[in-house]
Amino acid sequence: MPTPLIAGNWKMNGSRALVEEFAQAFRDADLSPGVEVALMVPFPYLEAAGRAFAGTPVALGAQTLSDQPAGAFTGEVSGEMLDDCGARLVLVGHSERRTLFGEDDAAVLARVKAALAVGLTPVLCLGETLEERDDGRTEAVVLGQLEAVFDALAPDERGRLVIAYEPVWAIGTGRTATPEQAQAVHAAIRERLGRYGDALAAGMQVLYGGSMKAANAAELLAQPDIDGGLVGGASLKVDEFLAICQSAG
User: Fold this and answer.
1) Parent domain of 182
2) Is the per-residue pLDDT at 129 higher than 80?
3) Of 26, 18, 21, 22, which is closest to residue 56 (Cα–Cα)?
4) What is residue 30's predicted lDDT score, i.e. its pLDDT?
5) CA distances from 74 to 17, 66, 78 (A)
6) 210 vs 48: CA distance, rounded Å
7) Which of 180, 183, 174 shows the shortest CA–CA distance to 215?
8) Residue 171: partners with Cβ closer than 8 Å, 6 or more residues away
9) 71 pLDDT band (50/70/90 cuts)?
10) Are the C-beta atoms of residues 213 and 169 closer than 8 Å to each other?
């Protein structure tokens, strides 16, 4: 069974003070050693967070990366830069990157490969819109996004990813998929991963990312194919995020 992972995505929020607050809380926190924790902080706070999280169970993550290793790409950040700042994970294909910044499956694949090239763990985000769900296309959309990446990777590369299922209609809306709805999609993802190998499917961390909070975390995490959470708004509140992490233990 995969190790539970709770990853917080601060999006375009946070401060140095919040970094220090989280570092202090997790330095003293009573967490199960069988739970992994990560925080994806904005680029300006990566180095400060890397220093602050040293000696805590919190791994450092970033929210996206360029598909290029270096060059004249003003405003972009490369995987090598993230690695140099101490990042260990990076979100790729988050729904906001897909919808607001036009990243299609090809762009997502290029970023996954860029992350793998420098030893970062890509957290590949998959998810459907409300319209796609209402049209009965949830599995077609989610599994299509999965295959667009996994079909293009070598077997040894596939096992280095984490997957996050994030129904777009449940991000920042206060709506949450029921545990049964979330489990159904996670089970479909796990089944499709089996086409690439039974060991891969059994060992892949598949996170749920749709308005997870302390009040619903335990019920979601109790589902057999949900291995953790990609937490948005609740990851900006120390007590709330810590409670979610403790639910995973």
Assistant:
1) 5-247
2) yes
3) 26
4) 85
5) 28, 11, 11
6) 28
7) 174
8) 95, 96, 127, 209, 210, 211, 232
9) very high
10) no
Which residue numbers belong to the known binding site for substrate?
9-11, 172, 211, 232-233
The domain that contains 170 carries what CATH number? 3.20.20.70
Residue among 131, 65, 137, 136 nearest 94 (CA): 65
Whether residue 174 is predicted with pLDDT greater than 80 in this model: the reply is: no
- CA 110 to chain centroid: 17
- Give 165's strand partners: 126, 208
For the chain, what is the domain count?
Answer: 1
Rg (CA), the chain: 17
- As annotated, the binding site includes 9-11, 172, 211, 232-233
Q: Is the dihedral of CA 13, 118, 230, 124 positive or negative?
A: positive
Residues with catalytic roles: 94, 166
Paired residues of 139 in beta bridges: none
Q: What is the pLDDT of residues 1-20, one digit of tens each?
A: 899 999 999 999 999 999 99
Phi-psi region of 163 (alpha: psi -120 to 50; beta: other; left: phi over 0): beta
Residue among 180, 178, 195, 182 at smallest CA distance from 142: 182
